[in-house]
Amino acid sequence: MNNVYNSLYVEYLYYFNIDRDYFECHEVLEELWLNEGRAPIYQGLLQVAVALHHFNNNNITGGIKLFSLALEKLEINQSLADQLGINLMKLIEDSKVYLNKLKQYENDPFEFYDLDIIITDPNLQQEVEYLIKKPPTKHDEME
């Protein structure tokens, strides 16, 4: 398979959209973030996953903090959406909605729900579909 995207980024999308393992999203994207000179866009994507991980573990404060940090980085880097092959604007809007709901959680609690990152590049979609057939080994299983 001729990969157009970094394999760690593709794994992140697989874990985010398919496996719903937000901790593993953090693991793979942190590795990419460190390898790619700590690009803020990757940190923002990583922080969305960590925000969901926190909320899923009943850490409302952590979810609010991480969504806020993520949005700062993603909004500044919206111009990179085409390079990433995703609908970054939708992720930003969905994250804002989630953040606002978390801020009201004490008065208006709600059940955890997943977000989806919409893939706009057919090549990237194909790479993620390949992982559906041949799932990657989780980083915590490698140690």
Care to describe what's here?
By secondary structure, this protein is an all-alpha fold. It is 68% helix and 0% strand. It has helices spanning 7-19, 22-35, 40-56, 60-76, 81-84, 88-103, 122-133, 139-142. The mean pLDDT is 94.
Summarize the structure.
By secondary structure, this protein is mostly helical. The chain has helices at 7-19, 22-35, 40-56, 60-76, 81-84, 88-103, 122-133, 139-142.
Helix content: 55-70%
What's the end-to-end separation, in Å? 27 Å
Q: Please identify the structural class as seen in this structure.
A: mainly alpha
Biggest beta sheet attributes: none
Helical stretch tally: 8
Annotation keywords:
143 residues, mainly alpha
Secondary-structure blueprint of this entry?
Elements: H1 7-19, H2 22-35, H3 40-56, H4 60-76, H5 81-84, H6 88-103, H7 122-133, H8 139-142
Helix pairs in contact: 1-2, 1-7, 2-3, 3-4, 4-6
